[in-house]
């Protein structure tokens, strides 16, 4: 301490200017896989709202009416458990694939990666590849630079607006939305979300890019928990590569000079979308996009060396041990995921699209009607959660000779709720308790599988005791 | 809010904002230890110095500026109302107004349809039923069958009349039913005799001599409202005593109590609570309950 206090106190900034990264274009198997993934995922996103099913938009998350239409099924707020279930399955899938194969999600499926990839394609189309982009940024402002930058942002913004519009199309019927957009008559919320989502796309995929992964993404930070020595990672073979160094192409004697297979061309750094040097080992910045594998394999090919200096590997395999795929962690995650997945489909399959809620009148316990029977009054809400109109019948059981007065047969339009009052009358001589359990059943007249039974109470004097 | 608490809040908020600013500024830099790590070690795990980007720091400053802007525009600083004068009550009023603008035309359309026609419109009855369940069922019951002191609306017996106009008037303006107390005028024996006569009117058995004296008492005291034949008078809301339908109960003690102490029934006016359009729909629903034509609802 005394030593350093004598020196001039030097400080370092804990915040630094973010350096712009210019990832070079890559060709190879993993680059092709990513292009495939981008086409599949974005294709689904942009085409999704246009699919129709039984004459209505197949995927429509109708927030004002609290109804989520997914093809043949309509989910109601009462089905919220299914969403929880899906999220748990998704989380387990993430855990399972991460412990098995590392950051597959980050490198190939994450929206941040997928949209950044398309934005880089646009950028490359306008400004050229890495070196040209660096040159352009360094060049003084002139007509060409202004033109290129303006075209890039115009393209980005149009694509982002199209994305925002498609996104809103999942929540608001896209055909009407398109007409409203053409006539420029969007509602305030639709307008807000189109522009907000467009702005988010433009900002995240155009400007923030890897910084989302490095500084914002929580998953990037907690994935380490799921990694072990048998998890697939992008690894640089240090034993084979070091010491790195330049050499002539046909130098066959390089090993005698103490050189490894790494020719220190820095291509792996230039292609990296997060700007790291994979040769330093596994780092939290690595999104496992495998761009460095593709480019290094190319270089090894050109040098006449064996491919795989940088490769998908595991820590165990790098240490010369065998990699175990079946291990408690993967079996637990995979098993849980499979069980929940099967359970989910069974539960969705068994779900009946009718819901009944019974409220007993609370202002008086019971009344005696002119015939001397004891009456309880109930308000029953029936929701038709199906996509078709149904006619229902309500019946009651649980006590002898029950009379159900009210409109016991009625029809409900799809997606609507009906609230109806009912009177149940029972002879007090049949009551052996003051509080009795009774069961209401609602049943569709056109489909006997659509039925639900609910319990309620009947209260009266126990004169039959 | 008293001045003390107002200043209390203002000072705490000011300290928090200034404190956050100072704290941000003080933790921007660290002493250079000449190593790649921050010097923090936990269980042998060292923390690398991975600096955050500058824009991240700027976002902290932006949130502070946003907070100050918010406190100027909206209420937050003690009793200061904010530049926009925003309040929850105003926001609620705006929502109510927006809802009225949206649903007003639908109600207006129903308002111009006579009740006799509305009872054939299932949607109108659904709306009326919903309003009834929300507003009226507390007293009249979900099934509108009433309760002691609250009339049954599903039968054919009406205190003030069965026409839609009368029903609507009852809901709009309310009703104050009053039966005078006769405890000062009649003695207990006379009340007993009168009770017997009232029971007799609705077909119950009662001691004959009591009925005879009761009838005389009835003609002296009750005919002004209930009529000479005891069939009541809908103009003043005097119940029909001959139909064996009882507002407060049919037992002799209850009837005697009614004669002795009188009754005061009160149906509150709903003109200002619901507005005429909604009252119109409730009228249609209530009217439909005593109509035998169930066909309207089966559509």
Describe the overall structure.
The complex is a heterodimer of chains A (465) and B (299). By secondary structure, chain A is of the alpha+beta class. Chain A is 42% helix and 20% strand. The longest helix of chain A is centred in the middle third of the chain and has 27 residues, at 143-169. Chain A is elongated. Chain A starts with a helix and ends in a 6-residue tail after the last strand. Chain B is mostly helical and 299 residues long. Chain B has 12 helices and 6 strands. In chain B, strand 2 and strand 3 (45-48) form a beta hairpin. The model of chain B is unreliable at 293-299 (pLDDT under 50). In chain B, the strands form 2 sheets. Chain B has a two-stranded antiparallel sheet. In chain B, helix 6 packs across helix 12 (276-289), helix 7 crosses helix 8 and helix 7 crosses helix 10 (252-261). The A-B interface holds A 9-18, 211, 215, 359, 361, 363-364, 367, 370, 375, 377-379, 405-407, 409-410, 418-423 and B 27-32, 49, 51-57, 126, 129-130, 133, 137-139, 141-145, 147, 244, 294, 297-298.
Q: Determine the most extensive contact between two protein chains.
A: A-B, 33 and 31 residues
Q: Which geometry of chain A do the CA atoms define?
A: elongated
Order of helices and strands of chain B: HEEEEHHHHHEHHHHEHH
Round the Cα radius of gyration of chain B to an integer and report it.
36 Å
Total strands of chain B: 6
Helix and strand composition category of chain A: alpha+beta
What is the gyration radius of chain A calculated from CA atoms? Answer: 33 Å
Mean pLDDT of chain A: 91
Oligomeric state, counting identical vs distinct chains: heterodimer
| Span of the ends, CA to CA of chain B | 58 Å
The percent range for strand residues of chain A is 15-25%
| End-to-end distance of chain A | 92 Å
Strand tally of chain A is 18
Question: Portion of residues in helices of chain B?
Answer: 40-55%
- The dominant shape of chain B is elongated
Strand content of chain B: 5-15%
């Amino acid at each position: 301490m005394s030593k350093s206090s004598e020196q001039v106190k030097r400080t370092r900034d804990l915040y630094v200017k973010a350096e712009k990264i210019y990832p070079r274009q890559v060709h190879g198997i993993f680059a092709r896989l990513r292009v495939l993934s981008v086409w599949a995922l974005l294709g689904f996103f942009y085409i999704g709202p246009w699919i129709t099913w039984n004459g209505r938009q197949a995927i429509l998350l109708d927030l004002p009416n609290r109804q989520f239409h997914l093809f043949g099924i309509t989910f109601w707020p009462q089905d919220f458990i299914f969403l929880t279930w899906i999220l748990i399955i998704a989380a387990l899938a993430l855990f399972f694939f991460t412990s098995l194969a590392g950051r597959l999600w980050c490198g190939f499926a994450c929206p941040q990666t997928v949209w950044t990839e398309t934005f880089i394609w646009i950028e490359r189309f306008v400004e050229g590849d890495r070196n040209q982009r660096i040159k352009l940024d360094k060049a003084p402002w002139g007509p060409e630079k202004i033109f290129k930058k303006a075209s890039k942002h115009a393209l980005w913004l149009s694509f982002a607006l199209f994305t925002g519009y498609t996104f809103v199309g999942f929540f608001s019927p896209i055909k009407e939305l398109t007409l409203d957009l053409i006539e420029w008559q969007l509602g305030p919320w639709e307008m807000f979300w189109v522009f907000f989502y467009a702005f988010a796309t433009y900002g995240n995929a155009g400007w923030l890019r890897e910084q989302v992964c490095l500084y914002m993404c929580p998953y990037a930070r907690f994935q380490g928990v799921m990694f072990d020595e048998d998890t697939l990672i992008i690894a640089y073979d240090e034993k084979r590569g070091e010491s790195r160094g330049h050499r002539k192409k046909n130098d066959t004697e390089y090993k005698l000079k103490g050189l490894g297979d790494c020719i220190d061309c820095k291509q792996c750094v230039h292609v990296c979308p997060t700007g790291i040097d994979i040769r330093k080992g596994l780092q939290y910045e690595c999104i496992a996009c495998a761009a460095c594998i593709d480019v290094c394999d190319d270089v090894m090919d050109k040098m006449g060396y064996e491919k795989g200096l940088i490769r998908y590997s595991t820590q165990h395999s790098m240490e010369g041990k065998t990699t175990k795929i079946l291990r408690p962690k993967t079996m637990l995650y995979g098993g849980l995921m499979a069980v929940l997945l099967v359970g989910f489909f069974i539960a969705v399959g068994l779900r009946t699209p009718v819901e009944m809620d019974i409220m007993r009148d609370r202002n008086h316990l019971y009344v005696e009607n002119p015939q001397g029977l004891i009456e309880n009054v109930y308000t029953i809400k029936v929701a038709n959660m199906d996509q078709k109109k149904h006619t229902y019948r309500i019946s009651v059981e649980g006590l002898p000779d029950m009379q159900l007065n009210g409109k016991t047969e009625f029809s409900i339009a799809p997606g609507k709720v009906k609230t109806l009052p009912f009177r149940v009358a029972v002879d007090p001589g049949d009551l052996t308790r003051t509080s009795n359990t009774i069961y209401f059943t609602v049943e569709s007249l056109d489909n006997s599988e659509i039925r639900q039974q609910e319990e309620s109470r009947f209260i009266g004097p126990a004169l039959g005791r | 809010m008293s001045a003390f608490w107002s200043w209390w809040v203002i000072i705490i908020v000011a300290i928090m904002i200034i404190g956050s600013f100072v704290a941000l500024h003080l933790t921007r830099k660290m002493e250079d230890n000449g190593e790649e790590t921050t010097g923090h070690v936990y269980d042998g795990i060292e923390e690398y110095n991975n600096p955050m980007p500058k824009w991240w720091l700027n976002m902290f400053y932006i949130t502070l500026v946003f907070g100050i802007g918010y406190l100027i525009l909206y209420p937050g600083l003690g009793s200061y109302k904010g530049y926009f004068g925003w309040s929850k009550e105003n926001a609620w009023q705006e929502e109510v107004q927006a809802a009225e603008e949206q649903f007003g035309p639908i109600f207006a359309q129903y308002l111009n349809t006579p009740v006799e026609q509305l009872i054939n419109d299932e949607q109108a009855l659904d709306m009326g039923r919903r309003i009834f369940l929300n507003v009226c069922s507390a007293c009249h019951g979900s099934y509108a069958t009433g309760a002691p002191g609250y009339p049954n609306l599903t039968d054919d017996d009406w205190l003030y009349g069965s026409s839609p106009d009368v029903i609507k008037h009852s809901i709009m303006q309310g009703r104050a039913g009053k039966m005078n107390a006769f405890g000062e005028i009649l003695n207990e024996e006379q009340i007993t005799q009168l009770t017997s006569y009232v029971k007799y009117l609705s077909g119950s058995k009662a001691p004959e001599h009591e009925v005879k004296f009761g009838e005389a008492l009835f003609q002296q005291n009750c005919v002004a409202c209930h009529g000479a034949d005891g069939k009541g008078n809908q103009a003043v809301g005097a119940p029909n005593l001959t139909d064996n339908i009882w507002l407060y109960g049919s037992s002799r003690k209850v009837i005697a109590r009614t004669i002795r102490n009188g009754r005061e029934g009160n149906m509150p006016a709903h003109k200002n609570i619901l507005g005429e359009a909604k009252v119109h729909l409730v009228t249609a629903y209530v009217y439909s309950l005593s109509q035998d034509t169930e066909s309207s609802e089966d559509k």
